[in-house]
Amino acid sequence: MDSYDQEFKENGDTTYDNNNNHVSKKLKLSPFISDSEIRDEFSYHDPGVARINHGAFGSCPASVIAAQREWQLRYLRQPDDFYFNQLQKGIVESRKVVKEMINAESVDEVSIVDNATTAVAIVLQQVAWAFSEGRFQKGDAAVMLHYAYGAVKKAVQAYVSRAGGHVIEVHLPFPVHSNDEIIDEFKKALEKGKSIGKKVRLAVIDHITSMPCVVIPVKELVKLCREEGVDQVFVDAAHAIGNVGVDMKQIGADFYTSNMHKWLFCPPSSAFLYCKKSPKFSDLHHPVVSHEYGNGLAVESAWIGTRDYSSQLVVPSALDFINRFEGGIDGIRKRNHEAVIRMGEMLSKAWGTHLGSPPDMCSSMVMVGFPACLGISSDSDALKLRKHLRESFGVEVPIYYRAPKEGEVGAQNKHNCVTGYARISHQVYNTDDDYYKFRDAINLLVRDGFTCEMLPCN
């Protein structure tokens, strides 16, 4: 018998198995991972929880966890040998994998860092130096999306605003209906900078916004920045790799970062920072200064003192897991996208609401409107409802509160206006039952006349 897993595929044919037993489905030998193997890889998940929040923290398969454990043991067995003979080589192998996956020009453009937050600090640190050293003038501007991740906003405040930069936020519509809406608002922000005499030195652009989640037309916005003479373009793509297509040559940004522990099956925490090879970006440094300072960002990042580097060393093992799926990473992305759209549409139909954006502006995550009668009227309500779903129904899902706009239909009556959205994710371990469980929990709350006002304060 071939060692490949047996899979029966529907095709209407009659056939027999190896024991000459009659079966109604055709026997097919498949080299790809089976559903049971997927379940085994994630069997450590809490079986009582519908984990439809993969986007927040990701999840790592057991085979990659085992590879990580082996790296940890290599260090513990003989730390000196690990640091002097294995660490740098292992990090280079991870960088090579990333280089190929993102179509970078050179492996020298790829550094492995802890997470996107660290990458943001690296990029914004050199922007702050440009202000302090006079290469940028006080009052020069940085442009970023209003929906930028909270930690990124704080970093812009800490590095750019404190150094004397003027920050312009791009206010995007939500729900959103087309890429043109986003592009138009971004143009307005750049024009605003010009109109008040600000030289735009930096643009920070999300590839996929976190909350609410929308795939941003990043190539078009980078092109627009180039046309308008923006000095540096940084794409914060924390959710991108493994979730959408990533091609550095097509995107054309100066800097690009993405977490690998979210959608690339690596353990936390692991990310990459792409830095376009250019003399003007030679002064990039890791914010934790250690022995490798001055030897280039990639080398600096690979040795920032004694710590656990194992999550950054298992990128090749994560790729091995990915390649067990038909179509590799592209096949996984397609599978997840189609499933999350199908489940999102199922939920919106069940609740009489809508998606937050068209399917082509979604990745493996989608925003689904809650029934208005739940009365989600603040960020606090969103957090309380999320906690209630976790503790009372075993559903883990992030919730976004969107304040109604003036003049919006139903805005005067909170029971007629959709103000709450769930961000559902889909990863290979998810099943339809996870989303049915969510649907049924909300339907039960609606049936019982529940509103967020009934929940105690956290």
Automatic annotation (TrEMBL):
Signal peptide: none annotated. Residues 85-434 form the Aminotransferase class V domain. Keywords: Pyridoxal phosphate. Residues 1-20 are annotated as: Disordered. It holds the Pfam family Aminotran_5. Residues 1-12 have a biased composition (Basic and acidic residues). The keyword Metal-binding does not apply. PANTHER family: HERCYNYLCYSTEINE SULFOXIDE LYASE, L-CYSTEINE DESULFHYDRASE. This is Aminotransferase class V domain-containing protein. It comes from Nelumbo nucifera (Sacred lotus). The lineage of its organism: Eukaryota, Viridiplantae, Streptophyta, Embryophyta, Tracheophyta.
